[in-house]
Amino acid sequence: MTTHKACIIPVIQYKNAKAAIEWICESFGFEKHLVVEGEENTIIHAQLTYGNSMIMLSSENNNDYGKLIKTPNSLNGINTQAPYIIVEKIDDHYKNAVAKGAKTLIEIKDEEYGGRGYTCKDIEGHIWSFGSYNPWN
After folding, report:
1. Residue 81's closest CA among 63, 55, 59?
2. Residue 31, C-beta contacts closer than 8 angstroms, at least 6 positions apart
3. pLDDT digits (tens, 9 = 90+) for 56-71
4. What predicted TM-score, i.e. pTM, was given to this entire model?
């Protein structure tokens, strides 16, 4: 029997992906791994990392995949999923995100199941959760 390692990478679209990339890096501490620019100030594909985690994103588009997902702004602010990112220095992370304009939805707090975390919206309304709780430990 062969054992496979799995890796889950959330994929998110933005109306202004270039601005979102800069904001996510400054506010949430992600780093650019790969950014492929397209025509008319668009992003065809980008990969941002946080530690050993990654998200992929692009500009909103109507290609085969883009027709399947929408931005919260296209859905009247509705989100259908939200990534959870494990952060060691959660209080520092929270302070930086709020200082950079993240809209807090759930204030930072200790969780009943362990760890500490918060939930916020980014500049285009995507919901993100960050916390020190690591279910693998």
Report:
1. 55
2. 25, 48, 49, 50
3. 999 999 899 888 998 9
4. 0.91
